[in-house]
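Q: what sequence does this backbone want?
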């Protein structure tokens, strides 16, 4: 009877992890859908920033083709960095900064980035609880007999953990 109770609890926790991952994917899709509109708006003002716009497009495609937590995390972090560059370039174009479409897209994208950050945190919290469960007695016995394996956390690359250097 204890085996069944523990097994069912592990199933619930594994499903929570999968649901948390699905929430990250929902927000990544929302960001994916916003980016073409943002790029097109910027193109009209900053057409000569072709390389940057191509990098944003490539990064967007990398997120959508990524498989698994680690690959998705890496691609998503690269996309975030290219978007920061895009917004930095937009600062050089006063007409673009005042464009209502650009402002709304920027607001929507920032809102989505916040939702992605929350979804990542929720996912990692859920994975941590699941991993603790499958590694502690007595659940670790049921987990090993039933094939429950450790899940990966959504991690930030070392380069993005460092404090950016600001120079004036």
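A:
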């Amino acid at each position: 009877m204890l085996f069944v109770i523990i097994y069912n609890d592990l199933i619930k926790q594994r499903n929570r992890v999968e649901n948390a991952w699905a929430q990250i994917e929902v927000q990544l899709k929302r960001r994916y859908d916003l980016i073409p509109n943002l790029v097109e708006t910027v193109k009209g003002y900053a057409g000569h920033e072709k390389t940057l716009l191509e990098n944003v497009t490539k990064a967007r495609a990398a997120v959508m083709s990524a498989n698994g937590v680690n690959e998705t995390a890496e691609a998503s972090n690269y996309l975030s960095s290219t978007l920061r560059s895009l917004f930095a370039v937009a600062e050089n174009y006063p007409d673009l900064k005042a464009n209502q479409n650009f402002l709304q897209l920027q607001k929507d994208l920032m809102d989505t980035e916040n939702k992605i950050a929350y979804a990542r945190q929720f996912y990692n919290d859920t994975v941590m609880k699941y991993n603790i469960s499958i590694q502690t007695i007595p659940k670790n016995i049921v987990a090993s007999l039933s094939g429950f394996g450790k899940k990966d956390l959504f991690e930030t690359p070392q380069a993005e953990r460092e404090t950016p250097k600001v120079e004036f």
